[in-house]
Amino acid sequence: MMMDTTCPNCGSGHAYSDGTLWNCPDCGHEWNPQTETAGAAEETAPAVRDANGNALADGDSVTVIKDLKVKGSSLVVKGGTKVKNIRLTDGADGHNIACRIDGIGAMNLKSEFVKKA
């Protein structure tokens, strides 16, 4: 059986086996060919992370870390505002959290401006 010797991380053809793992001298990536195909589906879904690097999930509560102006309005979401029951979305404009804020209503936030509560 012929093994594919290209690095799944950078695509380099210079990968070599050290007995148990394959190594790429160009990018330093190490992988096991038996588990690499099973783990590929898990790596494709990027996790949404807050300003501190914590992974966020649907239903989490977050706290806004700075004052945010609401576009098209004179309203401001103050820093320290707690937002409950968020929904993660894949907004093309970078707004990857859909939520409802008391006093303002439904809106979208960027995960870089919140921290997990």
TrEMBL record:
Residues 7-32 form the Protein YjdM N-terminal domain. Coiled coil: none annotated. It holds the Pfam family Zn_Ribbon_YjdM. Residues 48-117 form the Protein YjdM C-terminal domain. Belongs to the YjdM family. NCBIfam families: phnA (TIGR00686). This is Alkylphosphonate utilization operon protein PhnA, putative. It comes from Rhodospirillum centenum (strain ATCC 51521 / SW). The gene is phnA.
